[in-house]
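Quiz preparation item.
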């Protein structure tokens, strides 16, 4: 059977054929040198037929194979305009060396005839099978135990923004085979001290001490749970025993801590304070959900709000605030986004007699249109002293912007007092927000 050495050092060989499948080199030694694959015979039209089996093997020397295959070979059609016939390579098996590097492929050659072909209308394909240099350092004359050659070329993790519902990341490190390394993953909440998270492959202290395999890779899966608070995760990686004896491949560049300069020029940071000799990359997990609480309070322990009496307690827990009864209405949305929906709020007060107040005083010391601040509440989202609701100014409440319209009261002097208004959320803020209204500034309760 025929056998040819390609320009990239790979060897192609015909292993078997029933259709005179063969290879030959034409224009040898010239710039247009190429290897030609030919076969002949009668085939049934429109039926895929195996015309033979070929092998593709990488270059080798006295030590062994010096290159490896990383992908299946492919056939690129070259100016086969007007021809319906086609040729395909089907990968049959793979050969590997003792280190797990792929050094050979065996393919079945499949031809589907659509018309008669000849020298005048032949099919032309380009065989793409680029090999990669094998970087097993022991084959380069470097003894790992003596010299400690260590190097990490790339680290693949995932998006820098982790979903608030949680995520599963596959973390893969690639570099010189058998490189030892450490990984630690820390969780940081509100800028506080790191807490190291665990993983089935990480110890109780959150440290992964491992080694790249014979192909120069190591991977593990890290689960980041869902959260209701903003978090940051820092992934720290350290190469063990880096030194100047590491074999240097032409396309790679080393730095003093055993990482490629390509890594250092990206999103990984080198030797941040407290992590000298490590690479660090940060990932954020922010909660998209945000809530607005519209709160009504009263110090009266017998008043009912919408038929419910809540046992008063000290909500500030500091001894300086009177015990208050609280009624909350909670609205949820996404940070920075508003709502096309208006939210009507209706408080029906019962269990006591409620009379709308009048006169000077109230939650805010101002007059609007001649009305005193006691009584029907007023709202402002720009000026604190013009609003009976606390925390209503969006420039000082982390961006929660709302409007309150159609404020009205009815049933003054009765045990069926109604306070109603409509809330329109223009934008939820960066944090949860509580706006509180003091019922005791609106009505007298007897």
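Solution:
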């Amino acid at each position: 059977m025929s056998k040819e050495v390609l320009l990239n050092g790979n060897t192609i060989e015909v292993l078997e054929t029933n259709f005179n499948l063969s290879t030959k080199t034409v224009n040898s030694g010239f710039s247009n040198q190429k290897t030609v694959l030919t076969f002949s015979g009668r085939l049934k039209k429109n039926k895929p037929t195996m015309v033979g089996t070929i092998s593709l093997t990488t270059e080798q020397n006295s030590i062994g194979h010096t290159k490896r295959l990383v992908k299946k070979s492919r056939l690129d059609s070259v100016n086969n305009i007007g021809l319906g016939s086609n040729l395909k390579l089907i990968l049959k098996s793979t050969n590997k060396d003792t280190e797990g590097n792929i050094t050979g492929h065996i393919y079945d050659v499949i031809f589907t005839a659509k018309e008669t072909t000849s020298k005048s209308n032949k099919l032309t394909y380009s065989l793409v099978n680029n090999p990669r240099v094998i970087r097993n350092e022991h084959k380069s004359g470097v003894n790992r135990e003596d010299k400690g050659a260590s190097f990490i070329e790339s680290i693949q993790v995932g998006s820098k923004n982790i979903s608030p519902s949680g995520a599963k990341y596959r973390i893969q490190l690639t570099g010189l085979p058998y490189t030892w390394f450490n990984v630690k993953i820390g969780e940081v909440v509100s800028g506080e001290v790191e807490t190291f998270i665990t993983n089935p492959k990480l110890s109780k202290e959150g440290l992964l001490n491992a080694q790249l395999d014979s192909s120069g890779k190591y991977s593990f899966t890290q689960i980041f749970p869902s959260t209701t608070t903003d978090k940051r995760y820092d992934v720290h990686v350290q190469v063990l025993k880096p030194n100047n004896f590491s074999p240097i491949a032409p396309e790679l560049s080393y730095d003093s801590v055993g990482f490629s300069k390509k890594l250092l020029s990206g999103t990984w940071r080198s030797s941040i304070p407290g992590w000298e000799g490590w690479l660090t990359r940060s990932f954020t997990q922010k909660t998209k959900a945000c809530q607005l609480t519209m709160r009504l309070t009263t110090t009266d322990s017998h008043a009912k709000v919408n038929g419910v009496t809540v046992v008063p307690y000290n909500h500030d827990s500091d001894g300086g605030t009177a015990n208050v009864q609280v009624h909350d209405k909670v609205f949820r949305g996404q940070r920075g986004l508003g709502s096309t929906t208006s939210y009507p709020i209706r408080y029906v007060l019962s269990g006591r007699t409620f009379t709308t107040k009048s006169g000077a005083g109230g939650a805010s010391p101002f007059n609007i249109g001649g009305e005193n601040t006691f009584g029907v509440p007023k709202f402002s989202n720009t000026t604190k002293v013009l609003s009976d609701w606390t925390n209503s100014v969006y420039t000082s409440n982390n961006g929660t912007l709302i409007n309150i319209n159609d404020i009205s009261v009815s049933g003054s002097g009765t045990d069926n007092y109604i306070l109603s208004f409509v809330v329109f959320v223009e934008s939820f803020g960066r944090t949860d927000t509580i706006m509180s209204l003091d019922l005791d500034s609106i009505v007298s309760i007897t």
